[in-house]
C-alpha cells in the first residue's frame, strides 16, 4: 500500500495509508500516544523485573523503541515478541523521526529493532531480546507461544480491520497471557471490552491520551 509520512502534533511521525484511510498513530502525537497507553498504562503496571511482552502489530517500531528505552532506565529484563504481517521497508523506517524527538542516544537501537532478523530471537542488548514474527495474525499458531506478562494490542482499528478484533482472535491472544498479566489497547469500543472480558480479563476504561477520551486496560483473572 502507498504510505504518506505525517508529522503529528508532538512533532513525531506517523504513517497514513490512503487506501485504508488509516493512520498508524494518533495525529495528536504519535509519541505521546504510545507513551501514555503502552508505557505508562502498560509497562509501568507490571510489578516484575523480567517481563515478557506480546505486541500485536510491530508497525513503526515505536512501541518497541520506547519499551527498550524505559526498560533500560528501570533496569528491566525484557523479552519482546511481535507479530506483523506487513513489515516496513528500510526506506520507510529510515524516514521516521522518533530518535530525533525522544532518546536520541538510542538512535542506533531504533535501527537495530528494524534490522533484526525476522522469525529469530535477536539480542538488542543484554537486557532486551526481540523476536519479530512475519505472520498473519488470523492464521498464527498461538499454542507455539510462551505465556506473556503484558500485551500491547495495537492492530488497526476495528472499523478498518474487523477481522483482527473477533472473539476468536481475542481468545487466542488471551490464551498466551499468564494469570494477572496485563493487556492494554487504544480501542475502547464496547464490543472489544466485552470480548476481552469473555476471554478472561477484568477490563477497565481509563483516561486516554490527548485527543482520545478513553482506552482499555485489563488484567487476566484466569
Automatic annotation (TrEMBL):
Residue ranges of domain MnmC-like methyltransferase in the record: 141-220
Name of this chain's protein: Peptidase
Record-annotated membrane-spanning stretches: none
Any Pfam family: Methyltransf_30
Gene Ontology MF annotations: oxidoreductase activity, acting on the CH-NH group of donors; tRNA (5-methylaminomethyl-2-thiouridylate)(34)-methyltransferase activity
InterPro entries reported in the protein's UniProt record: MnmC-like_methylTransf, SAM-dependent_MTases_sf, tRNA_MNMC2
Domain of life: Bacteria
